[in-house]
Amino acid sequence: MYNRKEFLKRSGGAALGLMLGPSLYAGCSASSRIKASGSISAVGIQLYSLRDDLPKDPKGILKQLAAFGYKEVESYEGAQGMFWGMGNKGFKRYMDELGMKIVSSHCDYTHDFERKAAEAAEIGMSYLICPYVGPQKSLDDYKRLADSFNKAGETCKKNGIRFAYHNHDYSFRLQNGQFPQDIFMQHTDKALMDYEMDIYWVVTAGQDPIAWLKKYSGRFRLCHVKDRKKGVTPKQGEPNLSVIVGTGSIDFKTILAAARKEGMQHYILEQEAYEKAPIECVKEGAAYLNKLVF
Questions:
Q1: pLDDT digit string (tens) for 223-274?
Q2: Cβ-based neighbours of 137, under 8 Å, separated by 6 or more
Q3: Which segments constitute the Xylose isomerase-like TIM barrel domain (predicted)?
Q4: Cα separation of 135 and 6, whole Å?
Q5: Strand residues in the chain grouped as ranges (E)
Q6: For residue 253, how many other CB atoms are within 10 A of its CB?
Q7: The domain containing residue 248 runs over which residues?
């Protein structure tokens, strides 16, 4: 079983001021992700949702996900790497067989990133994403991280893909009178990187996802669709309260409609806490998202 904090530390690159090199836009147009009716044409899933089951049988789990109606995959760096022991080309071949596409992966952008960007680009991925940096002691620390994001963005651009950052709640909580997320947005070059909004964590921080989508229109190109338990007031440091997507308190119909207008392109389910077997949770989540009209 993977430990979330250990994974995030390894994949997120919390170290400051890392000198990584280069990024370019290889994403698909937003209209290609939305049917004429306003529903999602290519529902995605973050494979971390199945972190206990996936390492035991990667191909078997991926086959089930395809059967549930997932069309896009966002991977992460587990013990077998982001391509789950198949290599980048082998993973793509299997995705092609299943009628799915790997569009992105969370990864450690502070280690061997040139190779990762080249391998991702080679199989037509659009993004490599930093999943976590952790709360920082000062606002200057966030500025230094923004500089390292720009350098990672340059590495990705050089290889023909994009870099992005995935938020948790800490960047949407005031620190010394400022939101760290504002620092990230304002100190990174939109020509080099985008952002993946984890809607659950924005709500958990007591913030309005729609307001942030409008404030930085066109910067949030991917989102994590992760629902939140009903009847619980958000508070800092709480345990993860994610529930099956579509059964919780988050108004995805309204939020995703706004996201679409502000340039959202990839809608990726993530499940972190479970009410039943993880595979059943993501099956029900896929059924909800594939029927959702906004």
A1: 999 999 999 988 888 889 999 999 999 999 999 999 999 999 999 999 999 9
A2: none
A3: 63-291
A4: 15
A5: 44-46, 72-75, 101-106, 127-130, 162-166, 193-198, 220-225, 227-228, 242-243, 266-269
A6: 12
A7: 4-291
